[in-house]
Prior knowledge:
The chain has helices at residues 16-19, 25-39, 98-114, 131-137, 155-161, 177-182, 190-202, and strands at residues 2-7, 10-15, 118-121, 146-150, 167-171, 185-189. By secondary structure, it is of the alpha/beta class. Strands 3-6-4-5 form a four-stranded parallel β-sheet. The longest helix is centred in the middle third of the chain and has 17 residues, at 98-114.
Amino acid sequence: MDIILKDNNLNIEISDKILNFPLNISLINQVINSYRLNLRKGNVSQKSRSEVKGSNRKPWKQKGTGRARVGSLKSPLWRSGGVVFASKPKKYIFKINRKMYINAFKSILSELFRQFRFHVFNDIIINKPKTKEFIKFFNFISLDKLLIIIHNYNKNLFLSSRNLHNVFLCKVNNINIINLIKYKNVIFTLKAIKIIEERLINE
């Protein structure tokens, strides 16, 4: 059964599979942790004796020189030699399956809808690339932590919103769960929400 969303003089039918999904905080938490961990990259790296530049030739014979026996110039005991237990970049990857991600996405969209933080515009048209024009267009809503999701690049919209630090413009292909939770209000263009609806239902 479709939900009829009456917003900004629009009557939009959106599937209840997207806007009537139960809130699952545990699942959302898993997806957020996965997203953050996958962005993290280890940066510590040391060279072991197999990676240090140099010859593997024995510096002197084993016996008869009076010096300590040495097998290689790359020994960890020597200056510029390899490290015994060399540290390597750690992988912080935490995988989740696609169904978990999609259900978390539906859960967040549904909760935005229930909290009246979900808005849809037929299209967003800014005639001049000026911040004043942007504020005038969105005079009905607070611009404090506002996320706008569009279906294609709009130069005037981008230029008029970039000076507003609490407003973030995002194409529908670059949307992520972190931004959906981070911002107080989320505005979709009609084409953008239809693209999301088609992707979530067909999965």
